[in-house]
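Q: what sequence does this backbone want?
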């Protein structure tokens, strides 16, 4: 039986990822519930994001270089990253079964999964580049966005229900089954070998040279560097609040997991609808408008989440914020796929991630202590900030995090609005030429 190729093959991989990401998302929803139940600490929950992010950023340049080096066996690289996630789930199950699970182990497992993800994103992005024609890049990115959206809908509902009914152990067992399906979905698919380009030949050398090449490529294109600067600022602001939105809702609802699940499900439904619409539409012709408008919509949702003091308002904020994600991410991904030669995309896309997410660990480090030590005490009844901002966001548990959401939303909207006047950002699609396919040899099976 011949292996599946093109859009059919990519759709099979996509379906496998849909199942795998759903399983892991249910676990990732349930684990913060366990951490909150054990600690009731915003800092402890925020540090989960830190341990998930920091190893990813530190290892991504090396992983990107290795993905390009091993691109003639790209499917194997994709499978290795999925198998690593499977093994982390097995370790979590063992810890639960022996009653040795502790906060330190949670952090360690998140760091281990981050190492796997450092290979996963560049390898799967490269697979879509070599399996599909350029005109389908944004549609493929939107399809990938629907994976996260479906997980965003189902994971909170299933996570809250299963955590209450059967506990974390059964959730992890389900996660392992889903991960196995994602791995098996790769078997019947043919992933082509990326075409070789002159740029790729120039990037070859020792592993250190290849690891830093992605940064050199981006630095040589000031408009692409400016575009990543937009994401650096946006992610810095978003993660100041985003790492704390779950403890905010739990604190303001007396640890009501169903309330948190309702808000996250609403966001997932919104992102799914947006992803389906974008898949059918194909996205705006001027993709940078999709990037900037998407960021402004997201930050408007953050502002509403901060202002909200009830589940219906939080749901509205989540719907608005999440609706923009497929537009922002697919527009940006399409720009980069068209501007970057395929045989250096592993290195370049890894560097992209480091730049765009570089300030996220700092935001996470700041956010938890800022909330626990200053904002939440200041917004408690009788606190020093309550007379000033209490009429805006209310007072009591979690109100300090709400205030942070308001600050983030307002500042972010101002910054993204100003980006329309920055030529290097606004005109990135014309200032940076598309990758010239005539510079590359035909793709070969991996």
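A:
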């Amino acid at each position: 039986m011949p292996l599946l190729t093109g859009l059919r093959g990519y759709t099979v991989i996509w379906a496998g990822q849909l199942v795998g990401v759903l399983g892991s998302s249910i676990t990732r929803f349930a684990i913060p519930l366990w951490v909150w139940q054990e600690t009731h600490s915003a800092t402890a929950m925020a540090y989960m994001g830190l341990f998930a992010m920091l190893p990813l950023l530190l290892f991504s340049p090396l992983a990107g270089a290795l993905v390009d080096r091993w691109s003639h066996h790209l499917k194997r690289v994709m499978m290795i990253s999925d198998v690593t996630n499977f093994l982390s789930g097995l370790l979590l199950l063992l810890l639960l079964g022996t009653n040795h699970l502790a906060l330190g182990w949670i952090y360690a497992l998140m760091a281990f999964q981050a190492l796997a993800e450092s290979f996963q994103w560049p390898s799967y992005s490269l697979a879509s580049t070599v399996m599909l024609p350029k005109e389908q890049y944004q549609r493929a990115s939107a399809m990938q966005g629907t994976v996260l959206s479906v997980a965003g809908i189902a994971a909170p509902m299933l996570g809250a229900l299963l955590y209450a009914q059967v506990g974390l152990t059964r959730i992890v067992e389900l996660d392992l089954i889903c991960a196995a399906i994602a791995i098996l979905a790769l078997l019947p698919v043919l992933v082509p070998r990326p075409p070789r380009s002159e740029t790729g030949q120039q990037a070859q050398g020792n592993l250190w040279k290849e690891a830093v090449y992605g940064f050199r490529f981006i630095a040589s294109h000031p408009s692409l560097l400016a575009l990543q600067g937009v994401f650096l600022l946006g992610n810095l602001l978003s993660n100041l609040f985003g790492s704390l939105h779950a403890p905010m809702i739990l604190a303001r609802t007396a640890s009501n997991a169903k309330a948190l699940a309702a808000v996250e499900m609403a966001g997932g439904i919104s992102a799914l609808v947006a992803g389906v619409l974008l898949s059918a539409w194909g996205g705006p012709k001027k993709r940078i408008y999709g990037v900037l408008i998407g960021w402004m919509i997201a930050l408007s949702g953050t502002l509403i989440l901060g202002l909200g003091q009830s589940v219906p308002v939080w749901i509205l904020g989540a719907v608005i914020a999440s609706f923009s994600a497929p537009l922002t991410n697919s527009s940006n991904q399409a720009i980069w796929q068209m501007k970057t030669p395929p045989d250096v995309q592993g290195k370049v896309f890894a560097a992209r991630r480091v730049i765009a997410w570089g300030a996220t660990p700092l935001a996470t480090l700041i956010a938890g202590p800022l909330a626990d030590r200053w904002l939440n005490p200041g917004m408690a009844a009788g606190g020093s900030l309550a007379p000033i901002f209490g009429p805006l966001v209310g007072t009591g548990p979690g109100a300090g995090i709400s205030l942070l959401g308001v600050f983030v939303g307002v500042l972010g909207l101002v910054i993204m609005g100003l980006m329309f006047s920055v030529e290097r950002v606004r005109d990135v699609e014309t200032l940076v030429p598309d990758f010239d396919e005539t510079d590359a040899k035909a793709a070969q099976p991996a």
